[in-house]
Amino acid sequence: MKEELKKITKELQDQLEKVADISALNNFEKKYLGKKGELMLLLKKIGNLPETERKEIGQLANEIKTEIKRKLIETKEKLGGNIGAADKFFDATLPGTKIESGHLHPLTLVQRDLEKIFSSMGFMILDGPELESDYYNFEALNIPKSHPARDMQDTFYIEHKNKQGEYDMVMRTHTSNVQVRAMEKYGAPLRGVALGKIYRNEATDQRHEHTFYQIEGLMVDKDISIAHLMAVLREMFKRLFDQSANIRLRPGFFSFVEPGVEVEMSCLLCEGKGCPVCKRTGWVEMLGAGLVHPNVLRAGGIDPKKYSGFAFGTGIERLAMMKYGIDDIRLFNSGDLSFLSQFDS
Ligand code: DAH
C-alpha cells in the first residue's frame, strides 16, 4: 500500500507539471481527485487495512492529498484560473489591516484642554468676530490712532471706510477684541476666556505666522489684583503641561493694561538649567498680561472705582509648541501627515 501511494504521488506530480492550461488542469483534477478519481479510490482502500497499518498509512495518505491539493491550487493560480476564497490559504494569526481614521489637530487638542481648564475655574467661553471694527480691536482697548500696533505693517485692513474716509474694519490682530464686547454684554463681575483665530500682516518664519490662534483671559470683580492673575496662570500651566512651573513677571507695555507685564515660565524642557529653547536663560516668555486699564473698563461700561480686573493673552501655538516640544510653528499648517499623525491618540 505504501508503495502504491508513493507511486501514485510521483505520477501525480509528474502529470501536474505537464499541465499547460486550465482545461488540462480540470481533467487532471477529475482523473485523480474526483469522486471516482484514482487517488480517491486508493484512499478508500485504507479503510480495509488491518488496524496496525491503517493509522500510519492513513496519515501518509492525508499528507499526500493535502500536498496535491495545494499544488493544484498553486498551478491554477499560475494559469490565471479563478480560485475560490475557500481554497486560499488563510492565516488567522496575521495582524489585521489597520483602518486609518481621522483625529484631532494638535491645536484643537490644546484648545480643548484650555477650555476644560478654564471652565472648571468658572470662566465662560467667549466668542468674537474675526472681521472686527477698528473700535473693538483698537480704540476701545486704549490703543490711540497713532499707536505703532495699528501700522499697516501689522494689520490687515479691509477695503471699507467710515464717513470720515478712514478704514474702519480690520481682521482682528488679537483676541483682546473680545474684552470690551464681553464687558458690554455681561457687565461685572465677569470671568471669561476667548479662543480663536487672529491675523497679522507679518512675514512667516520658524516662530511667526500671519494667521494663528490666541487665548484671551479676562476677570473683572472687586479687588482683583496681580496675585489673582498669577494664581490662575499657575493653575493653567500646571494642568496644561501636567507639571508645576515657576512664574516670574517683567514689566511690559500694552495699552489696555496698567500695569502691564510679560509672564515668563521656567523652561519645562531643561527645568530651568538652560537649553536652546529657553536661550540658556531657564525662562521662556509665555504671555502678555496686566490689570485692565481704567479706560478699557469704562469703554465696557464698568466703573473702575468699583471694579478692577486682570487680562492676559497668548498664542495657542506657543503653548502647543511648549507642551509637545515642537520647534517650528509652520508645521501646524503644513498638512504634513508624518507630523500630524503623531497626535493620533
Ligand atoms: N493682545 C496681546 C497680543 O496680541 C496679548 C495681550 C497682552 C493680551 C496683554 C492681554 C494683555 O490681555 O493684558 O500680543
TrEMBL record:
Catalysed conversion reaction: tRNA(Phe) + L-phenylalanine + ATP = L-phenylalanyl-tRNA(Phe) + AMP + diphosphate + H(+)
Ranges that cross the membrane: none
Sorted UniProt keywords: Aminoacyl-tRNA synthetase, ATP-binding, Cytoplasm, Ligase, Magnesium, Metal-binding, Nucleotide-binding, Protein biosynthesis
Stretches assigned to the Aminoacyl-transfer RNA synthetases class-II family profile domain: 110-322
Enzyme category, top tier: ligase
Residue positions binding Mg(2+): 258
Note on cofactor: Binds 2 magnesium ions per tetramer.
Cofactor: Mg(2+)
A GO term, aspect molecular function: tRNA binding
InterPro entries per record: aa-tRNA-synth_II, aa-tRNA-synth_II/BPL/LPL, Phe-tRNA-synth_IIc_asu, Phe-tRNA_ligase_II_N, Phe_tRNA_ligase_alpha1_bac, Phenylalanyl-tRNA_Synthase, tRNA-bd_arm
Cleaved signal peptide residues: none
GO CC aspect terms: cytoplasm
Keyword Nucleotide-binding: yes
Pfam family name, one: tRNA-synt_2d
Keyword ATP-binding: yes
GO biological process, one term: phenylalanyl-tRNA aminoacylation
This enzyme's EC code(s): 6.1.1.20
Domain of life: Bacteria
Subcellular location: Cytoplasm
Family that this chain belongs to: Belongs to the class-II aminoacyl-tRNA synthetase family. Phe-tRNA synthetase alpha subunit type 1 subfamily.
Subunit: Tetramer of two alpha and two beta subunits.
Name of the protein in its database record: Phenylalanine--tRNA ligase alpha subunit
Source organism (scientific name): Candidatus Falkowbacteria bacterium RIFOXYC2_FULL_47_12
